[in-house]
Amino acid sequence: MSDTIEQDWGNYWQGRAASEAGTALVGVGVETNAEIAAFWTARFETLPKTARLLDLACGAGSVVRHAAALGLTELTGVDISKDAIATLKSEFPTVTGVVASADASGLPRGSFDVVASQFGFEYADAVKAAADAARLLGTGGQFLALAHSADSAIEAEVSGLGGDAKAVLDSGFISAARDLFFADMSGSSDAVFQTAAQAFAGPQAQVLTIAKKAGGLAAHLYQGTQTLYQQRKRYHLEDVLGWLGGMEAEITAFLGRMDSMQAAALSEAQAKAVVQALEKGGLTAQPLEKFLSPSTGDVIGWIISATDKN
Question: CB-based burial of residue 84 (10 Å sphere; 0-12 exposed, 13-18 middle, 19+ buried)?
């Protein structure tokens, strides 16, 4: 994961995700929490309460949450984002939080009974992460992951959301809005204002179309800009320009996160390479399986599981 993308996710965990930490993909509607919770419950409910469980690339602790709800207490989360770990610790103070990459945790060999991951380990080098997960498992331990699939409904939705974010940025709306506010609030001539207003009309129409279709950040940007313009006499120009700059940064970061989700999605060949890495690490892997939404039949992701041979 690049430094830029890592920061995009760090900002995410500090911000809007911190209040919705149980949702692995806040803002992506295909993921149904109840269905994923049922998946983990079915696999964790027979574990001893003292089972040592690692949530690999944990984010704010999606897997930890399900394990803790079933009474498991020996819980650890690893994530490359210190902000994700801080969010995890704020809700689960007794969980051990480790800032590290999923493919190089640095944790002791054989120190876990379960290594689990929910849309996480594949953001690192998935094959290396699988090899390290095998190293971390003790005798009879098990690896279990839900991973992004290249043909999943999540990937399709993420692609659409990323396309909308890119279209907003490419429209020139924010730059044109800056020029319009500057012309209006800095005492420019009528001719300069009219030129700025005409230049804003096209981008405004583009973003309105996206906002009506997709809502989200596009709608927030459009509605916020409209409100600021209607109430512009209440604001200083620098405050308006600061808000527009903040929105540009947030949409850019959102696009970065969507791009990283798409990049993380595993093809069948890549998923099979993960399985091979687990087997090379001494585990017996179950056949690769797609996780289908019980309610819609949509592909949510890969189920990748393996057990220590000993």
Answer: buried
Largest pairwise CA distance in the chain: 80
Q: What is the pTM of this model?
A: 0.78
**Same structural domain, 143 and 181:** no
166: burial class by Cβ within 10 Å (0-12, 13-18, 19+)?
middle
Q: From CA 264, how far away is CA 126, in angstroms rounded?
A: 9
CB 114 within 8 A of CB 53: yes
Residue pLDDT, tens place only, 232-272: 999 999 999 999 999 998 898 888 888 888 888 999 999 99
CATH number, domain with residue 58: 3.40.50.150
Distance CA 138, CA 117 (A): 17
Backbone angles phi, psi at 104, to 5 degrees: -155, 65
Q: How far apart are CA 28 and CA 23, in angstroms?
A: 9
CB 281 within 8 A of CB 309: no
Phi/psi at 152 (5° precision): -85, 165
Is the distance from CB of 298 to CB of 290 less than 8 angstroms? no
